[in-house]
Design goal:
single chain, about 150 residues, mainly alpha, Arc Repressor Mutant, subunit A, 3-stranded antiparallel sheet, 5 helices, about 10% strand, elongated
Length: about 150
């Protein structure tokens, strides 16, 4: 195993989809960043159960602020994954639902979620083992993060 300072980490911006200088790579990176965001994944999963009102989504997703939910829903709507329907009542009723494109995305998101749930114990054990080996290598030094 390489010492900690010799290891390198990759970031999503360095993932090669095609020519690294092409606009296609940057466009795909932007899309993956949006749909890979933790809030987007959770919102898409919840809307996969059916249309929801704003406060329903907020209650279902613990820890998300009103501002972050608003921004995430707006971005998902902009990307064509979520539709927003306003019903003119008093007060106005606003429902959010997955579009056809969003429902298509639900398939891999569900698979990824199931994979994460199934492998959580293995990942937690790997993290603990990694952290223990890092602590043994540099017990009195503060490790500098690569990101």
């Amino acid at each position: 195993m390489k010492p900690a300072q010799e290891r390198t980490m990759t970031s999503p911006g360095h993932t090669h989809v095609s020519d690294p200088n092409s606009s296609d790579c940057r466009a795909v990176s932007g899309i993956l960043a949006r749909i890979g965001d933790k809030w987007s994944v959770l919102i898409i999963a919840r809307l996969g159960e059916g249309p929801r009102r704003f406060n329903e989504i907020k209650r279902m997703i613990g820890g998300i602020s009103q501002r972050m939910l608003t921004l995430t829903l707006r971005n998902l709507e902009r990307d064509g994954l979520v539709s927003r329907t306003v019903t003119p009542t008093v007060p106005p009723r606003v429902d959010y639902a997955l579009t056809d494109l969003g429902r298509d995305l639900l398939i891999p998101v569900t698979g990824l979620s199931q994979w994460a749930i199934r492998h959580q114990p293995c990942i937690m054990a790997a993290r603990a083992q990694f952290d223990a080996s890092e602590a043994a290598v540099t017990p009195h030094q503060e490790r500098v993060s690569a990101g």
